[in-house]
Amino acid sequence: MIQTAMKSNSWSIADLRSSLKWCIPFFFSLAALGADVAQPTPRPSGTIEPDPLKWAFEKLDGLDFDRDFLRALVKDYPYDDEKRKSLIFLNLFGFLKKADYTGHYSKTAIQKTTDFLQEHRATFGRAYQQSQVDPRVVAALLWVETKHGKHLGNEPVGAAFLTIIQGEHPSFLPLALDELRAREPNPTPEMIEKTVSRLKDKAAWATEELRAYRRLNMAQGKRVLAWKGSFAGAFGYSQFLPSSYEKWGRSSRKNKPADLYRAHDAILSVANYLHKNGWVDEDPVSRREALFHYNRAQGYVDIIEKIASDIKWDWKSMPEFQIKKAVAKKKHNPVPAQAPHQP
What we know:
The protein is mainly α. The protein contains 15 helices and two strands. Helix 9 runs antiparallel to helix 11.
């Protein structure tokens, strides 16, 4: 990583060459044109690439994705150029600003989360029997994620991943650099380098999530294609990604897949996630680590713990939360039959 910050409002060719090594041919073309990078970044000349959506289709088709699945995604693709660019930038530039979670805390948050615990008391009890995760934490997490299902997101899950993949199309690099400069008038070389690398890394990540989404589609049918969620493809009360659903999703109904748009299944799934990622109820460090694994932001962990600790709900005295010990069946060891007339 380059440690020195850029001092001027324009980017020197030397800075661009050093921080964007994999784009050297592109920036050489800028040098040849004598481009002033304080102006909108010129588009690379040469072979015209197919439009981003067609380009993404061909790329995924070359990775052995099912063509009928891809055709369905492309056929129903809902975004115009501006919306597509907006979603790509939402996923790309999160690193520029630290997220603020303090707005999730209020008296209303405490009351609503207490009501949610009481409404779903039996399910929280079932989750606790399986995972030993504090029900107040599960309820607080679901408040922070979607306000207990009130804000689920409106982006088609498959389209969200397909859009992020398009961010690696050559046309988006200059757009992303222009957007970086609009957000940060004096970007550091590290910011430039991270912007470029994240276009590629996010596309690779979205490709794997789309694979998981396809597996869910194959297992559960067309209903999966109707799922909607966040701009990052997270869905349901718990805002799981497809790969998270595969690993940690839990259903409250026998012989039916988990439905994270139902509170019952979301409660069981979140408790299972935290349990499988190291939660130990008596260990504060493990609790924070499990929450951090869910969302890698200390502010996120802090606000969930704050909401949970301020809930006055005497759950430990409730019968649903008394750990039921399995009763071992006694083996029947019959007394050997005595021989007739044996003393």
